[in-house]
Amino acid sequence: MPKITQDTRANILLTTLQLFLEKGYKNVSYQDLVKHTGLSKGAIYHYFESKDALLIAVFEFLLEATKEPENEKPHEIVKDQESFMKLFIAGKTKQIDSFKKLMGNKPLKLNRLLFFFEAISENQQLKQILVELSKHELTILEGYFAGLNMHHAIPKGKDIHLLAESLYWMLQGGEMSVFFLQEDDWEDAIIKMYQKTITDFFKII
Amino acid sequence: MPKITQDTRANILLTTLQLFLEKGYKNVSYQDLVKHTGLSKGAIYHYFESKDALLIAVFEFLLEATKEPENEKPHEIVKDQESFMKLFIAGKTKQIDSFKKLMGNKPLKLNRLLFFFEAISENQQLKQILVELSKHELTILEGYFAGLNMHHAIPKGKDIHLLAESLYWMLQGGEMSVFFLQEDDWEDAIIKMYQKTITDFFKII
Amino acid sequence: MPKITQDTRANILLTTLQLFLEKGYKNVSYQDLVKHTGLSKGAIYHYFESKDALLIAVFEFLLEATKEPENEKPHEIVKDQESFMKLFIAGKTKQIDSFKKLMGNKPLKLNRLLFFFEAISENQQLKQILVELSKHELTILEGYFAGLNMHHAIPKGKDIHLLAESLYWMLQGGEMSVFFLQEDDWEDAIIKMYQKTITDFFKII
Amino acid sequence: MPKITQDTRANILLTTLQLFLEKGYKNVSYQDLVKHTGLSKGAIYHYFESKDALLIAVFEFLLEATKEPENEKPHEIVKDQESFMKLFIAGKTKQIDSFKKLMGNKPLKLNRLLFFFEAISENQQLKQILVELSKHELTILEGYFAGLNMHHAIPKGKDIHLLAESLYWMLQGGEMSVFFLQEDDWEDAIIKMYQKTITDFFKII
DNA sequence: AATGAATGAGCGTTCATTCAT
DNA sequence: AATGAATGAACGCTCATTCAT
């Protein structure tokens, strides 16, 4: 009996995302999907023609839903370290919130990096998506530093692009440590890491 | 027919490492191992009681063989940016060389991160090993910055630990980008990234 | 959106026939049928209650459309080897033409025997149909030989029924070889085989 | 626990042959094979790497075991219709007996043609094997007719090759009818058909 | 020390079929 | 008349593992 649910597709995507994040692509079987979606194998195949197609769809769904919002005129807002921090953390918090909202009340044992790297290694097409995402995030940071520069909040003569890139990589490295070590409470841990990293960054430059 | 190889164990470890790095833990089957070692399933089980045990052994084998050598008195050697760079690159080059030597003439299509993260997610015990490793690398960097400080090669008043940690994370982030994008020629790419990152770092501080 | 095709049923039959001939009953799935008819699964089930029913319908459709036409007074026409050959080949050509017309311009990679035998082994009811068909063809041949006999075109004392049956079996065996070896251009090949077989037959009797 | 049976391979081949003959390649599943061999899926895959490989192996096994024996000097033996018939039937009986022996006491519901045609349509490589087989059988028949000719037991001036080919095709056609109509007792039916066909053949030439 | 026969659970995928709309 | 969501069993095949030899 076909259910009236129009959200079967969303149900599949969401459940699959959750499972992929928790256990990794390879470790999630259709049996798992059946169990957690409440659908039959056939129904899932009705919406996604293969596990591979499901991977891509889930990945795009995740990025779509959690893409960092770009501020329109960052240089009007970012004047000093304090406003930099505030805006950055606000952006990330928003991202995390939309992520948590996306997940609903479903419990989430995160092992995000595994999923990311698996996804990439299984599917070349996803690599490009991630490269774009990383450029996007770098651009945002550059906007922030441009603001700081306009307000003379950073030492003269520093290369804005270099600063942005350096901080971006530090943040990436920091994220790695967090995800390495922390499976639960990662939301708090990662926000604290962002704060510490930015604070440290302003100390060393 | 017993093989002449006395080092059956080493053969298994090496072959497995290569396969894990290339395809990831989950994607390597005993069938693959049999094919590439020239041994039988039984023989592999004779040396390693499970695929899990093999994973740990291989991981330790890898870290053992490529651990960054700690200089005895870094502050005597590291006097300025130039000597910093030289020593750091020398250490990493040594690491990579011992890695390549380890692999012998076997071709290596790297997908290293996948293996690392898979290993970690499959096996809690490996996480601790990696944490130790990361502390070790951080300590080395701190030694370098202490040397720089002794020779007044960095601005006064900068926190040495902070500098080391910041650079460490930047390097980690940099490694990620390289491994994301580059599957072949990663040796060159990663050395260049190290050089660029260190150069940039000295520009921004 | 309802298709303009009024002859949905004919569309299904034709497409299915083509697919069955090309790939065999077992290798044709509803997915294939959907793809090639442009209809939905439900629509096909609306016309044929099961794949089995579809098989029978298609089989009957095929036989109906390609049944060899019986000449009214063969003994008036068939006077000698030449007229025998002419009439026989004309009949077969007609059959093949109506078959090709039936298939329209759809390309047809023939593997006809597989389909026939599959059909029979899947469905007892079809066996009887084929037996009837074979009797029909035998009767036609007997009519031809009766004509020859009336015109003293065959050696005296030969049993007409025996001659007809013998030739019929030879032709059957010949068809088998053709279908074994030839997937494309079977129309030409089979006509040539008919000609050779009849010529040979007149040589040996 | 590995059994001592050295005949696991033979067991698989025999059981599979029986099932293929009875139900056809497509209709035999590994589940069936497991059930009838008493082995596990894995064990069967240990011996044959795929269902396709199994098909070829079974096919070769069948032909090997039932190939018609070639008489050394047929023209010394075949002198007239009677000796022709005797030798031919003896050869076929031998073939059938070795086939029945091969099958052991296992009950056999024959649907042989389906299997043959399926095998061929699934696997190009098998087609060639069958062509060779058919040439072999034709050669044997030609030897017989040469014998007849030497003893002036056939009308003068008849082309020996033509006679052999014609009879061969008649026999092929005859086999088809038998297999079409008869599933049980096919051994008797086919021998009777051979006898009738040969008798008829000598009547019409 | 090393083999390879054998297991059985599980994999991703396809199947014919049902039925509310 | 026609759709397409949904089912659940079955498919061929691979897996890590065991163990008698």
From TrEMBL, chains A, B, C, D:
UniProt GO molecular function: DNA binding
Source species, domain of life: Bacteria
SUPFAM superfamilies attached to this UniProt entry: Homeodomain-like
UniProt cross-references to Pfam families, sorted A to Z: TetR_N (PF00440)
PANTHER family reported for this sequence: HTH-TYPE TRANSCRIPTIONAL REGULATOR YJDC, TRANSCRIPTIONAL REGULATORY PROTEIN
Protein name: AcrR family transcriptional regulator
Organism: Mucilaginibacter gotjawali
